[in-house]
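Example 3.2
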Amino acid sequence: MGEFVGIDPSRAEQLIREMEGGKDVLGRTRHGLEAAIAEAGPSWPGPAGVAAMHRSWAFFDETQRDLKWRMDTLKQLVPTSGNGMLSEFFPFDSEAEAARQGKADAKPIADALKQHEIESSIETWRKVTAATAATKEKLNDPAYAAALLNALGPDKFRALFMHWMKDKGPAMDRGLPPALLQQGRKSLGPLAEAYANAERAGRLGEEWRTKFMESTQPGVLTALIAMSKPSSRLLNQVALRVLGRPLGADLPTSPNWNLNALVEAYNVDPQALQSLLADNKDAAGWLLHPQRARMSGVADLEAKLAEALDKALNPSAGTAGVRDRAWFNIIRGMGAEDSPWIGGSWGTLKDSPISESLAKNVAPYLDQLARGQSKRDSPELKSTFPTSPWDTLAPDDASRFMGGLMQDKDAANILMKASQDYTLGLDIGRFRPFGDEATQDQYTSRAALAGGVANLMLSGSTHAEWTDDEYADWLAGVALLPVSWLSNRYWPIQDANVATARDAGMDEAKDGLKGAITDYFDKKTPATAEDIAKRIVQRQAEWVNSSLNEHGQKPLTEAQQNEVRMAFRGRLYDALVKALEQRGG
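Structure, written as tokens:
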């Protein structure tokens, strides 16, 4: 038994496609040609051509199947991708031989299971595990694995795992800890590998792909993926089955090892997690529910999930388009109007590595979120509109998403730094507010985006759980975002002393705003939220003019100052008032 095989994967796949094309041509030609031959009768010059045509089609079909089997098996034996010759010894000489052996090896397993169901003893279970162990060296052949599974059938296959788990507490519903799963690999690991290998090669029928998945207990499914190397498709099928259950379905009295198994699998295959979040609009809400990890009862699960999210969502992870869709679904799901992340009975992701992981990796999408805010506030500036699919994201959803993260102080600081970097990166200072038409258009567009990201931060910050002093400091910093570019970008200051003075001026401006906000919070002033917001906007406009004057730039006229002030007002006033009222009462 066994055969040495060498195949160039890219050439083999090309040949398979070419043979499929040949079968299509013969298939389309056959009926018309057969009808013409029958009509011509004995006068047809080549009656033997029909048989040759059928033999050609059969040759293509048989060769194609054999080559596909070899490719499927080789991919299991040599788990690498790319071009070039891949070589390996095969367990079987042909697909038919592999299938016959798989069917034959299923019988001892089925017989041992039947005996165990009668006697239920340690000895009968040893016979079951001995029968499964006999398959181990042959499982890399997907034809063998599929034949083994089909001969057992889904019911017997499921029963084997259920018998093993039945004395292990709520294992079938809640899963098993890693130590017990490691023990299980020694007995049922070969069957888990058979399922994963046959599924990866696309050799499982409908009864396995849907019915088995839908009717099998979650603990059995997570045991399957923990004991094998599942494909991304299989891992996500199991995830949807496990995560789609209501939170209340998971008993709070025992650890949720199902979730632990999923998270550990996603840390090995983060692209599968990226695909899950991108392809299913509900998955983000299920996986990232604020109490999903915290109710699990599994130590360090939040840290493990944060690590998996970082691997799946960082700016270089996976495929850009898939990553973009994943982020869109996360932001829309966490920012929904009835979001459990904000003001719900479930609590928040405060002091959570999950919040920090999301905050760290959302920076590339601040531009689209700022554009969404700008579109709402400046519908005439079409050049600043977000692109698809971000144009369908409600600005309030984006704000609530930010608010959910900002409940974690470290995450809030990460977002503040990202928003500052984004604003400075706009390089608005290259464009004087009142230059020629083209320059002013550039200034207006960039200022609108700076206002958009500030508005996003302000709206989100209404949900942050900070002290008044912390919040006043944050609010003052965010309020200066649309003008801070002037201090860093508008004037190319080479003199260190002058630059230091400039930065000190910014600090003084921030301190002044913070003082006004703190006095409002402490009820030391009769001013209303509207009064404070007006004062902040006025201070912004005054600071622009004084900074222009200080650095030798042409000052703004009173009319231009008014226009700048109204521009700031239009972009920030409502969000400022709401933030102040929310905090100060």
